[in-house]
Amino acid sequence: MDESELAALRTMYVFGPAEGSTWNLTYDLVTSKLRERNPDEFIRVDEGGQGPVPGSVMHFGITLGDETLEGMAKLTPEGITLEDATAQAAASFVLWLRSSVVPASTSISFNMEWGLEADLPDALVPDAPRPRLVAAFLTHLEAIDAMVP
Fold first, then answer.
1. Where are the alpha helices (DSSP H) in 11-147?
2. pTM for this structure?
3. Which of 15, 37, 111, 115 would suit a FRET pair with 138, their CA atoms being 20 to 30 Å apart?
4. Residue 16: its H or E element
5. For the chain, what is the largest distance between any 2 Cα atoms, rounded to a whole number of angstroms?
6. Is residue 18 predicted with pLDDT exceeding 80?
7. How many Cβ atoms are within 10 Å of 38's Cβ, its own excluded?
8. Which carries the bigger pLDDT value, residue 149 or residue 35?
9. pLDDT at 65 over 50
10. Residue 14 is inside which H or E element, if any?
11. 81: pLDDT confidence band, cut at 50, 70 and 90?
12. If phi over 0 gives left and psi between -120 and 50 gives alpha, with beta otherwise, what is residue 124?
């Protein structure tokens, strides 16, 4: 794929704490931070078969620019996904994560749906401005594309 095709590509981005660390993620925290952005964002917690935490998942909507995307948060394993997103949307999302949800000086790892399927290891999200984040995500997509026959 060429660069413009990669930039337009939509996939699920998976964000989590870097290995050996935690965000101390709670659904209340994610809910409050989403509501600060937009009081009308869609939020639903499915409790799973084991009560309010084990096996549960939080589904949410988030408005980034003029686009509303969906995501999920899980406490175990700890992480947040952004579904059907471009690298540009993922960069905006991770900047929000870093400023609102993830504790200061805690690293964020990422992968993509296709990267997980291809056993591509997680990578660290650079502590960088949006253009460098987009570039990091596009580089990851290029690596995935190179692995696919």
1. 27-37, 87-100, 113-117, 130-147
2. 0.91
3. 37
4. strand 11-17
5. 46
6. yes
7. 12
8. 35
9. yes
10. strand 11-17
11. very high
12. beta
Q: Rounded to 5, what percent of the chain is helix, strand, coil?
A: 40, 30, 35
Q: Which long-range contacts (CB under 8 A, 24 or more apart) does 66-72 make?
A: 69/93, 70/42
Whether the upstream peptide bond of residue 149 has omega within 30° of 0, thus cis, is no
Q: What is the mean pLDDT of the chain?
A: 90
The residue to which tokens 């997980």 are assigned: 116
How many other CB atoms sit within 10 Å of the CB of residue 60? 20
The candidate with the shortest Cα–Cα distance to 57, out of 39, 77, 32, 82, is 77
Yes or no: say if 78 and 11 are a contact pair by the CB < 8 Å rule. Answer: no
Asked whether 26 and 76 are in contact (CB, 8 A), the reply is: no
Query: How far out from the chain centre does Cα 60 lie?
Result: 12
125 vs 5: which has the higher pLDDT? 125
Could you report the per-residue pLDDT of 41-54, keeping only the tens digit for each? Answer: 899 988 765 545 55
User: Hey, is 109 helix, strand or coil?
Assistant: strand
